[in-house]
Design brief:
Rossmann fold, globular
Length: 245
């Protein structure tokens, strides 16, 4: 098992990519804390995993909630070795029609939450030693423009360079930071249902499966990736390799 005896936090772990990451980590021997703002959703995943999982309902865009959640994980499992910043919401708006409130919410949940969680967990990792691993879940939307989702594109663009800055600042403490950028994987951001009519343009000619992203995250937090720091891996079916028509 790649994660035997380790403790991981997965935000947005109650559905889609986050759920698959939590399940895979547990199968690889980790104890997993699933943080989701939907208590029932997180509890469902934790119950399916069993005694090695716990569920916490928390708004990770708020510092007080983050501090409380991290403290509870440490009280329950004793330490934190891995953080996966997965939670995100989207806006589906353009710069001409998005409101300030909608902008602020997307930035808070999708970008600010990654900063708050990483800060709280990294401080715990430094206290407990030795080292740790953090993976931020980005998106291809953070690397190019789109016809809609202006706040989501901005937030995921921030995630890309937040990861790099974190990698530089936390490397002296033995904490490896990397990111994954999926594209159209499972159900759309913020929705529980998979949409089979969603247009897909990639080199594989199909949507991504949450388990495929989960396996890439497992690679980055395992010893197999011990020499990979500050790197982003596209798990996108080749979208970013394609020329835009």
């Amino acid at each position: 098992m790649k994660l035997e005896g380790q403790v991981a936090i997965v935000t947005g772990g109650g559905r889609n990519i986050g759920e698959e990451i939590a399940r895979l980590f547990a199968a690889e021997g980790a104890k997993v804390a699933i943080i989701d703002n939907d208590r029932a959703r997180g509890a469902r995943v934790a119950e399916a995993i069993g005694a090695s999982a716990m569920a916490l309902a928390s708004d990770v865009s708020k510092g007080a909630d983050v501090e409380a959640a991290v403290a509870e994980v440490v009280r329950t499992f004793g330490r934190i070795d891995i953080l996966v910043n997965n939670v995100a919401i989207s806006d589906a708006k353009t710069i001409l029609d998005i409101t300030e409130e909608e902008w602020d919410k997307v930035i808070a949940v999708t970008l600010k939450s990654q900063f708050l969680m990483a800060q709280a967990v990294a401080r715990q990792m430094v206290r407990q030693g030795p080292g740790g691993r953090i993976v931020n879940i980005g998106s291809t939307s953070g690397h190019r423009g789109r016809a809609r989702a202006i706040a989501y594109c901005a937030a995921k663009g921030g995630v890309a360079n937040l990861m790099r800055a974190m990698a530089v600042q936390l490397a002296p403490h033995g904490i490896r930071v990397n990111s994954i950028s999926p594209n159209k994987t499972g159900s759309p951001v913020g929705r529980d249902e998979f949409d089979p009519t969603r247009p897909i343009t990639n080199l594989v000619k199909r949507p991504g499966q949450p388990a495929e992203t989960a396996r890439a995250v497992l690679f980055l937090v395992s010893d197999d990736a011990s020499f990979i720091v500050g790197e982003n891996i596209f798990v996108d079916g080749g979208v970013m390799a394609m020329e835009v028509p």
